[in-house]
Each structure stands twice: as C-alpha cells, then as structure tokens.
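## Example pair
The file below holds two records. Each record gives the amino-acid sequence first, followed by its structure token line.
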Amino acid sequence: MIVGCPRCMKKFRVDESLMHQTVMAVCCSSCRSPFRITRPGEPRSSLKASGGPLPRILIAHESPAFCEAVRSILSVGPWKVAVCHDGVAALEVLRTCDVAVALLDVALPGRYGFEICENLRSNPRTAGVKVLLFASIYDRTRYKRLPNTLYGADDYLEKHHIPDLLLGKVRKLLAPEEDAGAPDAAADGRMPPLRVPQMTQEAVAETRALLKREEEAETTASPAPTTAVPEAHIKARRLSRIIASDIALYNQEAVEEGVRTGTFFTLLADDIAEGRALYQRRVADEVRSATTYLEDAFSDLITKVRKELNL
C-alpha cells in the first residue's frame, strides 16, 4: 500500500505482508519523522483501547512550530492530541474537555503554565489531570538542577530533552502502574499497557535541532527595517515573559518570599542578572533602549504571585 508522511508529505510503499500488527510505527525515509500506519481494512475503532476511548493529550505553547514538532513526536502513541497557544485557552480546554495529560509551556501568554497547574489542583474536577511543564529556554548547559518545586505538576522537562524523553514521560503519566511492574491492567477493564515505540536517533537529533532553531528564532529580536520592528517587539516581549517564568519555575520559594517581603530583586539577584544578560544578547539595542519589556515581565510576575498568595 502507499502511505504518506504527515509532516513532509512524501509518499512511499509499504509491504502489507510485513504488517503483523494492526497499527505500526514507521519512520519517514525522507524527513525521518515517526508516524503510525494502520493495516488496510481495519476499522478505525481498532485504534482504541479496550477500556474506552483514546486518552487526550493537550499541548499548550505559543509557537505553532513547537506544537507541531511535539505533535509529531507524539504521533507514534495510542492517544489523541489537542493544541492551543495561550494560557487562557488552555485552561478553558482543561476545564471543559476530558484531558488526561497537559503539556504546558511555563511561559504561556495569558496565564503562565504554573498558574494553570495551581488552578487545576484547586478544582476537584481537574485535580486528577496529569501535568508536565516544559522549560522555555533551550540551553543544554544552564539546567544543572531540577526545580525544587513544580507548583503541583507531575513532571518537568527541559526543551533539549523533549525528543528523547517525552514519549517515556507521557507513557509513565498515563500508566504509572505499568512502569512500577504491576500486573497487566487490561485484565480488569482498565487501560491496557501502552506500547509506545521510541524515535530513532536520527529523528531525535533532527527534532532537537528543530526545537533549538524554533526557540532562538522566536525570541531573538534582531535589528530590522522599520516595517519589521513590530515583530522584533513581539519577540522581545516573548523572551521577557520566558525569562520571568523561568525564574519562577526554578525559585518558587524565593519568589514567594521576595513578593511577601518586597525583596524580590534582592533575593533573586543572580538569576535576574543572568536573565538580563540573555535579554541583552538576543534583543537589539534599539528595541531595548525604547522599551521596558523585561521590567514589565518582572512586574507582571510579581502581580500574579501576589494574587496567588492573596496579598
């Protein structure tokens, strides 16, 4: 049969006699993206687990390119995927739809990812949703430690580890008893074990490079002609929000103490200095000199934390 890659649209032939399973994971010979194919003649319902419908996973990130890259990684698994691009929309989806796992960017516009997580945990209807937070900055040398708290999230993942670790983390969130060595859950009607293929090393490397390019392109406000200045400002504001959210993720206790006591900039001086240095490297002088985006982002973070603490 002839199948097409959902990412690059390349067509190629698959020998049906070699398909010993109803659904198989394959890797595109052109772009190396993984995706699933179904044996001819199988009803669509065969993709569902015997215990009910496929679990739904929500990807929430401002960048459409990032969401598509993550959707491609998840395409090999037995679940449905939904996407939204801001925190307000993500929270609405989580409140009104049956979502099993939420993959939230920490720096979502509208509502930070950690704000959404705390909101979910405070609502009995959504308290059981599994949450994985994505760090927003792609920097393989920066993250030498895990966050000391996760605002109630179940797991956390740096951007550069998404291609090689995301599938395993999602599988564990959906079926923790399987990873703990429990008996097959399918026997008593629960979700059967999730057999999720892994990406090839080539696909992991390519996706990792794609995510790095996407993050840098979306947050580097380079000098530009007058007609392109608005885009530079959009990127500068986005980077400012990312820096503030990153500080909040890695320093929850210090952030809350700083907001309570008015010592936010003193307690977090080192992290703020590092954030300012990154902002200076990525944002053109003319944008920085004419705006206060980074300071506005810190002020917005302080305001949100004050609200969460009922101050």
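Second record, same layout:
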Amino acid sequence: MAQAPVEAPRAEPLSRDEGEELFELMSCDAVPEHAMDLSMLDGYLTALVSGPPPPPLERWLAWIWDPENGRDEPDFARASDAQRLLELIVRHANATADLLSAEPEAFVPMFDEHEDAEGGATIVDAWCYGFLAAVALDPPAWAPLRAERPDALHVIELYGTEAGWDELEQLDPAEMDDDAHERRVASIAPAVREIYAWWAARRPQAALVAPPAVHTVHASKVGRNEPCPCGSGRKFKHCHG
C-alpha cells in the first residue's frame, strides 16, 4: 500500500521582534546602502514564491543587496549575522508561500507606511518594483502566465515600471484622486492570489532553500590565526576556515 505524501512543515511567520530584527539587519552598515528596503523585499520574495520554480539562491539573493546590478554584497564582520539575516529572509518568503496556499485571503502585501502621521495615499511603488525585479530574473519562465493571462501583472506594472507611471499620468483626472488610487491598490493583493493560484496548479508549492553553512552570505576576510567570526572562540583555520 502506497504511503500518503508527507506534508512539509509550514514556515513559522516572523514574530514582531523578528520583523524588527530583519529591519535592523537590512539597515545596518554591513548591507549596501542601496539594498532593498523591507517593502521592496516583501514584493520580491512574494513573486519568487508565487510564480514559476524560483532560481537558485545565488541568483535571487544578489539582487536583494544590489537591485540595479546584482553585484554588491553585504560585508558582515560576523558570519553569524549574515546567516541570521538569510534565515529571516528565507523564512519570511516561505511563510508568505504558506499563507497564499493555506489562507490566501489573509495575505496582505507589506506596503510602505506614509511618513505623514495623518496618513495619505498608500505607497506601493517599492513593493511593485520588488515584485517585478523577481519576474525580471527569468522573463521566459513567466511567459506562460503572460500569454494566458495578459492582465495578470497589469496593476503591479502600473506602479512598478516607467511605462506604468506614464499610463497613470494619462488617466482621466477622475481616476487620479486618492479614492481611485486606493481602489487600484486594493486590487494588488487579489492579483497576487490569482497569480499564485495559477502557478500552483502547474507546479509544486514553491519554497526558497537556504544552505546550512554559516558563510552563505559574503563575510569579511579573516586571518587564519584570528578568532573565527562565528563566535566559537577557536582560530579561524581550525573552525570555518
């Protein structure tokens, strides 16, 4: 008798403290100044787990630190900090995939908060740019969705591309007020749910995988006789060297 497939354990969503830890690590001096902010990162990771099978880690990770060229890297003094940051990023991505699979109506994009204490129009540009940055990693892989559902990415492209911004500027003035903007913003989450569902019917549930090695993310060079940056107390040559 064939055994039923074992369901993979769900990724635990980041707690409030872990979310703040992710923000602090992404904002620290070791990370390039032009790296993705949390909103852009959330959009990027959402696309990675909502679309075709994600590319290898070394391909998608590089663009988090350098969204324009994918070349710059973090320079952590402690490898444990680099590993912790990667762990939080991967967990957030996989928790997003789990949510879209099990409770899609509960999915809410992490849009930027308005700096005005009294509120204002929701800022979605960075999130949309991040989502489309993941699509741009492999446009041919996304081609089947575009062919069958040409408008699937339209509302995201409105706010995440120059062509979209031009299209917004040409709208009737009645479609440029805050209410019309918020209606478009409200359609982004349903669009993501539909994108996820479309791909879920064509491939296994996507998940990002981080290797267990401590030196997953670039760390500063350490002398062979210096203490290992992992914090073990041993010389680098006898530990992670």
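Notes on the second record: The first helix runs from residue 16 to 27. Confidence is low (pLDDT under 50) at residues 1-9, 213-220.
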